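Folding Task

Wanted — backbone structure
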Amino acid sequence: MPQADIVLTGNFPILSLTLVTEPLRVANRESAGTLWRWRFLSVEGGSLTSSSGIEIPTEALDRSTADVVLLLSSYHPESAVAGPLLSWLKRRAREGAVMGCVDTGALIFAEAGLLRSRPAAVHFEALRGYREKFGDEMFADRLFDVTGNRCSSAGGVATFDMTLGLIEHFNGRQLADRVAEILTYRPTKHGGPQQRLLTDTSLARLDRNLAKAVDLMIATLDQPIPIVEIAARVGVPLWTLGRLFKLHLKETPAAYYRNLRLAEARNLLLNSSLRIGDISSLCGFENPESFARAYKRKFGTSASAARTAGLAPAAGAEPRSSCG
């Protein structure tokens, strides 16, 4: 009978919490008993409010053992990095629990030294900033992972797949498949980079050459290549590539490429502590001045104002688009 300790920090994502507890509830129902038990914990206990304003009562961290520890943090996990939480996580790992984190919880796991043996899945909007701080080895561009005594999810619906993986790990594949069936969910088979999910599905259905071109753009945000070179690599004439973008994406290839880079810059502004000048360079702009002009033209606000707003979001607002 696995015991899961679900550790929350302030402004945790309620969607991820539901995608952990509901599959476990259904697993219990299908077994006609109590296969899984779980409880909600926080550093000091008491009521914690999710990012959408829903309050959840929690118990304080204690020395009780658990089979699984799952950490759900906020969109600003740095505020939750504190000695008591890090020490508690390290102790649970030493005791042999399966240690898991969802999305931004990976940053806290990295601070605790828990990602040296297995990198954690991280939402693509936060991935680059985390890698700049800790290196590439601790974070993976994947939707979810359940391997040995580590599990992780990039957030959003991928947390459902992570939970199904835990059910399979402890209770077998048949029960995991049954839980997915009851909850009318088809587990993802996408094992590649997260942003490839768009080009592997939606764009590939429209046109494979269009999907290849967008893949090239995503892979070269920091060092943009000429559109004529993209057309050559894809194997189509430049005019054909332009026609595909205008037909399906309503933009020229150059405009679409630039908007991808600006969207990445916005992600880094809101999800990393990198300097604006460094973000400018990482997103392929020749200098901070050209980046500043392009950013304000696209989003109607300055990069510095976006950074300030991301550090102190309004009530109910999310600093990034992830619903994890």
